[in-house]
Amino acid sequence: MGARPGRAQRSRLVLIAAIVIALAALPFVYSDAYLLKVLSFVGINVIIVAGLSLLFGYAGQVSLGHAAFYGIGAYTSGVLAVRFGWPWIACVAAAVVVSAIGGLILAVPTLRLKGHYLAMATLAFGQIAYVAFVEAKGITGGIDGLSGIPSPSLGPLELRSAESNYLLVWFFVGVALLLAGNIVALRPGRALRALHASEAGAQACGIDVVRTKVQVFVVSASLAGLAGSLFAHLVGFISPSSFTLVLSIELVAMVVLGGMGSLAGAALGAVVLTLIPNLDAVVPGMSPRAVELLQDWNADIFGVILIVVMLFMPGGLAAGAGRLAGWVRRRRPAPSEAEA
Amino acid sequence: MSLLAVREVTKRFGGLTAVDAVSFDTHEGQIKAIIGPNGAGKTTLFNVLTGFERPEDGTVTFDGREVVGMRPHRVVRAGVARTFQNTQLFDEMSALENALVGRFPRTRTGMFSASLRLPGTAKEERLAQEEAAKTLRLVGLGDASSVPAGDLPHGRRRLLEIARALATEPRLMLLDEPAAGLNSSETEALAEVLYRIRAEGITLLVVEHDMGLVMEVSDDIVVLNEGKKIAEGPPRLIQKDPAVIEAYLGEEEADA
Q1: B95: which residues sit within 8 A by CB, 6+ positions away?
Q2: Residues A282-335: pLDDT tens digits?
Q3: Chain A residues whose beta carbon lies within 8 Å of the beta carbon of residue B101
Q4: How are the residues of chain A apportioned to helix, strand and coil, as percentages rounded to the nearest 5?
Q5: What is the CA radius of gyration of chain A?
Q6: Number of structural domains, chain A?
Q7: What is the ipTM of this complex?
Q8: What percent of chain B stands above pLDDT 70?
Q9: Contact between chains at A193 and B92 (C-beta distance less than 8 A)
Q10: Which of A4, A83, A290, B45 measures 20 to 30 Å from A31, CA to CA?
């Protein structure tokens, strides 16, 4: 790893570089405000899902309350900006910290819970947060929401345009995926996977399962909080309806669609499922009627995709892509090498 | 001085006394076996010795430190590694990755330094890979390093769990029925591995049903029956011990 990059690793680096260049060049080549806005939302979901992938995909700890951390990040950022006039970067930092604390608060009492019980506890946490967003009117603005959240700005530089916001969001996507990717490639990532496979086995390898679970909850919640902050400043208005159980379930669906033990898969899952209700942004000339249908039937489409993936592609998109890559490699005779 | 001193350890589950005032010592460099009929309390004793269960009574001292009350991961860090009767491998990870997880207590990279790949993480990772590969070779799995643990045959899974335990750099290793389900050639290879581990200076405590293996490899044997220690001594004496013969008689007949 790192020392002797193999063929597979080199082609992966090339692929990553190509994606980065394409994403960075897009607003300069084709600047469509609606497309860029949709892609910004895609990026925000990729950030949340990167964290959820660590927690759920790698460590096997399900969370049906991730919309809560996203919301906590959004409201922390929004409230500090609107009511206290904090500068944007300070709001982002505060959103990350407060969400991390939220993760800690949820992780500690739920440590002993597994499977369905953990799912129920995190679901309850999500509902508690949702009700708090609605009821704490003095702070959050209640059901009417919080408006007038300023655009991101660094000193005199204010990022108002769709282009600049898109680039900002995807810069953070890159950072989040890089950090998470490093975690999964090294010692802590192996500890997460070990925990998932066998807690007794992990303990027998000297892994403190309690500490590891708390850590991954906190990291996962911070990424959701970061995404929430980006969202708040991007749209300028937030209300509780953006942080519901439905979103929490969609996030879990993105991880499952992408592939449980794959960060890239989870990111791809987020891209696909976020684009479906906004397909007109990437498919020019789609009829408004078709878009309407996609949006009305969104939950059903998600459900069908999930069932199909679980039945026919248990490893998700990542495993499917892996099989495809293996097929391509076999068709192109080359000195094969064992992949680590 | 004994490496592991077990004193009057008692573990109850409700009304059942699984381990009843058991005491024994394990000395550095020994291969010691714990035998006894099914339900004698062998696995429960192992769980107590490794922090997975907390005894109602008694003390367990490893290298001068009290083990009772330590959580399992602390026990491993103190130098006591174990395997399980039902292997607890990480099936979707390769053999090498399983052994790499075993390096966990001897490495440091945490979430923060890993996420930023701080200086030192690359070097630690490279060394960990080398050490993990070395333990795989020691148990004869050098050729299987990229195979997912779930795809390995049963005999090699047992060896992989031993390799993973070895990777933690223990001074004492507890093996829970390492020969269970192995054929005779695999059992022979296992005996070879046990000798190799002892040659590395690691003390072994082995729960085992395969009497051929026990009599061949162990320096000393503890016999448990219904939670109590009924005999302790070298193999040739244990074979003749009337209490041991009586405890096993029922089993032997049932097996035959």
Answers
A1: B136, B141, B144, B145, B146, B147, B148, B149, B152, B160, B163
A2: 888 888 899 899 999 988 888 898 888 888 888 888 888 888 877 887 776 555
A3: 190-191, 194, 201-202, 205, 207
A4: 75, 0, 20
A5: 20
A6: 1
A7: 0.94
A8: 96
A9: yes
A10: A290
Give dist(CA B115, CA B112) in Å, integer. Answer: 5
Examine residue A41 and state whether it is found in any structural domain, yes or no.
yes
> What is the 8-class DSSP label of residue A276?
G
For residue A69, is it within any domain? yes
Say if CB B13 and CB B54 are below 8 A apart: no
Q: Which pair of structure tokens corresponds to residue B61?
A: 């001292």
Domain housing A113? 33-244
Which of B82, B88, B106, B175 to substitute to test the interface with A, most A CBs within 10 Å? B88
Residue A339 scores a pLDDT above 60: no
- Residues of chain B with C-beta less than 8 angstroms from the C-beta of A201: 84, 88-90, 101, 164
| Cα separation values, A250 from A255, A276, B16, B106, Å | 9, 12, 48, 39
- Is the separation of the CB atoms in A151 and A229 below 8 Å? no
Above 70 in pLDDT, residue A5?
no
β-partners of residue B17 are B12
User: By the 8 A CB rule, do B104 and A187 touch?
Assistant: yes
**End-to-end Cα, chain A, rounded Å:** 8
When mean pLDDT is compared across A226-230, B20-24, B208-212, the lowest value belongs to B208-212
Tell me, letter by letter, the H, E, C secondary structure of B174-218.
EEECCCCCCCHHHHHHHHHHHHHHHHCCCEEEEECCCHHHHHHHC
At the topology level of CATH, where does B1-79+170-256 sit? Rossmann fold (3.40.50)
In this prediction, residues A19-27 reach a mean pLDDT of 92
Give domain status of residue A276, yes or no: no
**Residue-range domain boundaries for chain B:** 1-79+170-256, 93-169
Q: Could B72 and A203 be called an inter-chain contact, meaning their C-beta atoms sit closer than 8 Å?
A: yes
Three-state SS at A55: helix
Helix (H, G, I), strand (E, B) or coil at A131: helix
- pLDDT over threshold 60, residue A123: yes
Mutation site for B-interface testing, chosen from A1, A58, A96, A187 by largest number of B Cβ within 10 Å: A187
Phi, psi for residue B33 in degrees, rounded to 5: -110, 145
Tokens of A240: 């509780």
pLDDT computed for residue B55 by the predictor:
97
